[in-house]
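Reopening: structure tokens for the 4'-deoxy-4'-aminopyridoxal-5'-phosphate complex, inputs below.
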Amino acid sequence: MSQDPFHWTTDAARLREEAGLVRALRPRAFDATVLDLASNDYLGLTRRPEITEAAAGAARRWGAGATGSRLVTGSTELHAELERELAEFCGFEAALVFASGYAANLAALTALSSHGSLIVSDAANHASIIDGCRLSRAETAVVPHADPEAVRKTLEAHPGRRALFVTDSVFSVDGDAAPLAEFARVCGGHGAALIADDAHGLGVLGEGGRGALHAAGLAGATGVVATLTLSKSLGSQGGAVLGPAPVIDHLVNAARTFIFDTGLAPAAVGAALAGLRLLRREPDLADRARTVARTLYERLTSAGLGVVRPDAAVVSVTAPSPDSAVRWAADCRAAGLAVGCFRPPSVPDGISRIRLTARADLTGRQIDRAVATILATAPAA
Ligand code: PMP
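Re-run output (same inputs, fresh job):
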């Protein structure tokens, strides 16, 4: 019998096992007793009746699926409504909705660069940005994390090239915010575009949660594009690109993840729209998420843990090793607290962490319970 062409996957599994880097699916049970600090549901919207009802209503009216790609049958009036309201809320001229934030990043990077152009990319950017750079066929220069001077030097080394700089606005692993205003000054001075992925900023930063670009006074500015996910603060699913109308029009015509992907399901569109409207009605939600993050940070650091100062709603606690991070998260879970666990290769600096989501809807008692559980299960330093 000929050799199994996938036999090498067994060797790969053994290497993962030896390095303590095995990943496995753990289907989430419907368990209301688990305190969830692992999800990206920053504002606690995904189960709010207004949101779930809007999802159900949209599915009943428009169908369970979008039925086709956006340029064929997959654009409903609901998609257009969401795009208008998203752009208006965040302060941009136009918006385009995608099936995911991942697809939105691939679209922005591949359609707004090309063979011969330059992408400057922050070293800690999300995987979807890295993949967008790879797919773009542009020359990609990776610069040190949060370093406007490095961006300036790189742009200066490539005069006359069409260029863009891309960064997360809030980094998903450590929760630190990018110095967007400085980046914008550097980009503006060199005729380069700025693309910021505001997946973790929307709903948490800026006035009423309008996002990190709005907070930095960059929403709607010349040469600035935002990418978003609808799956975190808005409690739904899907992604979007926001920017000047001609740029959005270019994406409609050139972005392959827009043209060749089925449109976002109406239920997700309806839920995102309801999430956005809820954010308008409850503008203090963003503040509350940031306050919970600061409280978690202060209580865990004063107990001696290594915690990165949070700029938004991600609270990142360092663990001594990948194994101990996995055990820590498992011990928390056994005690009824779900936390995230980040290990290489998700962390480019090789430092493993547990990650907490500072949800706006956490009560004082829930915060007490979370802190007590994390401290009781913390590995010895
Ligand atoms: N960008 C960032 C910074 C993210 O954290 C994520 C999701 N983890 C994405 C993009 C992708 O968004 P989505 O899950 O909607 O595909």
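The longest helix spans residues 285-302. The domain at 49-281 is CATH 3.40.640.10 (Aspartate Aminotransferase; domain 2). Marking as resolved unless the reporter disagrees.
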